[in-house]
Amino acid sequence: MIQGFGLGARTEHYEGLKRAHDERWGSAPQWLECISENYFVKGGAPLRHLDELRQRYPMVLHGVSLNLGSTDPLRADYLDDLARLVDRVQPAWVSDHLCWTGTAHGQVHDLLPLPYARATLEHLRSRIQQVQDRLRRPLVLENVSSYVQFAADEMGEAEFLATLVRESGCQLLLDVNNVYVSHRNHGFDAQAFIDAVPAQAVVQIHLAGHEDQGELVIDTHDAPIRDEVYALYAYTLRRLGMKPTMIERDADIPPLAELLLELDRVRGVAAEAVAKPRVAEVA
Fold this sequence. Notes:
Elements: E1 5-8, H1 14-18, E2 31-35, H2 45-54, E3 59-62, H3 76-89, E4 94-97, E5 100-103, E6 106-112, H4 118-135, E7 139-142, H5 157-168, E8 171-175, H6 176-186, H7 190-196, E9 202-207, E10 210-212, E11 217-219, H8 227-240, E12 245-247, H9 256-275
Helix pairs in contact: 4-5, 7-8, 8-9
């Protein structure tokens, strides 16, 4: 089972990651998260790098276009590609986003939120089961950041997540930065959100940077983690216990040495958080 602190594997860092254990840049990552769709190929450099990194690190797979929330049928070819990749990598788990990303007419290349309603739960339940049956493992789903709310909402996001876990058997990838971004945009209590998440279902945590425009906060993944997200992360670990944690950086990607130093700060925040008394579970 994966433990500790990881990074998202990005092409800019492939060679550095292969020798990170031998460099004096800061502590090497203990595991890597790879974007599934980058390796839906029959051969060539992407799979060569993937295999070489797999020899050095435990891995998880993280998808961005399962399109779970769409009303279109799940794509059989996508699930076949993902199943082949799972067989090749043998990841600790496979994750994607609780969202929709397009229709049969095309992908919008964004992670679009869903209404938090009973009808949405019923729609998702059978689709999650289809994926879990194909992959022969639980699907791990990530909360997305959002900038609008739906008139059709019947419950809060955290209650929706807890209900989905209970009814589908899925697990959770808790993106703490996304919780913070949505909390700022919608005004809910971020700590109360964490309190309502089923701790036993969370198998991984994401941390990332964002852009704060005052009235609007945007999830950008193009900057270091902000202090306010570190604070919410510390609260999360005191509430949920230690969870495998990684940094996502998808734009303005810094040198690997700089990212490893940021990962060392994450380690420090985590160590200090779990050394403090545990936040009591909310009844």
